[in-house]
Amino acid sequence: MEWRKSSFSEGGDCVEVRQDLAAVRDSKNPAGPALSIDLTQLTAAIRSGELHREV
Fewer Cβ neighbours under 10 Å: the N or C end of the chain? Predict the structure, then answer.
């Protein structure tokens, strides 16, 4: 399965998305575990503000 990451990624420290949009992984550890996701639900949570970054 193919993986892709943002073209805005600098230095390889980012999340990669599987081509079928069913999983994500850490680009620094491509042989490591991948997290299965429902991208539709994740996108909805981000857009609604349910997920926010605490500083």
Answer: C
